[in-house]
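User: Hi! I'm working on a homework problem where we have to compare a predicted structure to a textbook description. Could you give me the structure for the chain below?
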Amino acid sequence: MTKLAQKLGEVKGELAFVDEWLAEAGAPVELARRRTLLEQQATALTTTLHLFDPELDVDQVAALDGWRKLYRARTDKALRNKYAQSHVVGRTH
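Assistant: Happy to help. Predicted structure tokens:
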């Protein structure tokens, strides 16, 4: 269950990153598709966690930055470039 909560935290962190980017003028519109996928993943993880512990308050699961490791970027600009290459131009992991 700890791994599921950690994954939910990472999805929340990535979702926050995407939301922040989408709020900016000129953000790639394709990010909206990625956002939808992340929302679906968060819902699935929440449902699964509730199966194990119906009283778990998933709102208390904090957003985590572990998802950023995949992109190996040292700056926000580099992270956005690598993220866009993976998710905006049609490729996925």
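For your comparison, note the following. The longest helix spans residues 31-52. The two ends are 24 Å apart (CA to CA). Good luck with the assignment!
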